[in-house]
Amino acid sequence: MLNKVKALKGYKLKCIDGEIGKVKEFYFDDHHWTIRYLVADTGNWLVDRQVLISPYALGSVNNEDQYIIINLTKDQIENTPTLDSDKPVSRQYEKDYYTYYEWPVYWGGPKIWGTCGFSPIIENTQSKGELMDSTQGDKEWDSHLRSTREVSGYNIQATDGEIGHVEDFIIDNETLEIRYLVIATMNWWPGKKILVSPKWIDRVSWNESKVFVNLLRETIKQSPEYTEESLITRDYESKLHQHYNQHGYWIDE
Questions:
Q1: 3-class secondary-structure state, position 23
Q2: Pick from 145, 161, 189: which residue ends a domain?
Q3: What is the per-residue DSSP string for 133-194?
Q4: pLDDT, tens only, 156-176
Q5: Which of 83, 117, 145 is the last residue of a domain?
C-alpha cells in the first residue's frame, strides 16, 4: 500500500502505555530514498528535543481514525539518546540510537535495510544481538538524512527548463521506500500534478534546492496525470512506467 507523507502528518502516535504526540515529518536517506525516521511532535512533553521513531518501532497504521501504533513505552522514548531540536542527525548519533535499542543498523550492508532484507521488522526467531553483530563487518554506504518538510518546495529542472516543484512524497508501507515525488506544475500547466520516481532523477543539488531529471518538459507534460483523488493502482503505475520506458519497481523486487 502507498501513502502520502502529508496525509500522515498530524496522525496521533500511540505507544504501549499511552499517546505521545503527533507525526511532524519524516527523515529519509539520499542513497536509497527510504524513510529512516518519523519525527514526533510531542507538544510540551519533551521540549527542545527531536524525538525520532525508527521504522523498527512502527506498528499498524489506522487511516480511518488517523493514528499510528508505536511499539515502545514512554520511558523508552524519554531515555533515548538526546538530540537537540536544532541539531542535524549525525551518524554518531544514529549509532548511539541503534545501540540503545539493540536494533541492526540500516547502513550495515548493501540492501535498503542493511543485512535484514527489505523489511524493518525483526522476526521473533532472530536474535537482536546476532543482527547487531552481523552488521559489523559490512561496508557502510555513505548517505545523508533529508527532511521531507525541507525538500518539499524544491524546484524540478527538466533538460529544457523548470517544470514545477516537489509538493509531496508517496511512500511504500512495506519497505518504507519513497516510490514517487508528487510534482506540482502550477507555474507551467496550472492545476496539473505528476509523479516522478526517485530512480528517474539524474541528480539533486541540495545547495540549490533543485532536482534534475533527464527528461524533456513535453515528455513530462504527456505523462499520466495525478490528482489528490487518484488511487495509485498497479494499472496506473504500469502506464506511468511505460510512458517513461521504465520497468516497474515491483519487477525488480
A1: strand
A2: 145
A3: HHTTTSPPPP--EEEHHHHTT-EEEETTEEEEEEEEEEEETTT-BEEEEEEE-TTTSTT-EE
A4: 999 999 989 999 999 998 888
A5: 145
